[in-house]
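Two quick folds needed for the group meeting slides. Do the first one here.
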Amino acid sequence: MCEITARKRGRSLETVIAELNEYVRGWWGYFSHCEARSCLRILNAWVIRRLRSYVWKQWKNRRTRVRELINRGVPKYWAERVGTSRKGPWRLSRNTTVAKALPVVYFTRTLGLVLPG
């Protein structure tokens, strides 16, 4: 899964989600018969965080990050604070402001991500 969501692959988010859906469906088909349901929450959270990091990396410039955060409903003050932060994409993918701008619903309903469980 790390290879699919690698931030330096140069693929669109839709392509990454299509590949990830195929992988997750196969994984869930294999492991659905055992007691792996408790691990699914952790796996789902990791996938969403990894995709947020992927999107953050695609928004390369600070101005783009601030603009995208404002367009997605984040107040201007917090968009400027987070968008101009020097923290890396993995660390900011856990930030509540980025989570508000890129919620789980955005990935599942809008982009069609399949999350088991």
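Then this one, please, same format:
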Amino acid sequence: MSNEINDEIMEQVRDRVSEVWQLPSRPDLEQDCIEYVYTEYLNYEWSMTYLVIKFLSKHCSQAVSSQDLKHMAGEQR
């Protein structure tokens, strides 16, 4: 693909990720997501929104749930 086409795709990815991004305090993570979506989109042409969800799912696999917090609070008593 030409550089012009790649630049257009990157611009589309940036716009789409920015539209759905819900973590304004994490611009660093947003940039990682943009790069991930761009690479995956070029390779597989998945939906960009799907790729954002896939990226966040991978990065949030170690997140603490509300159930985890309740369990931890019960252990401290």
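Slide caption for protein two: The first helix runs from residue 3 to 20.
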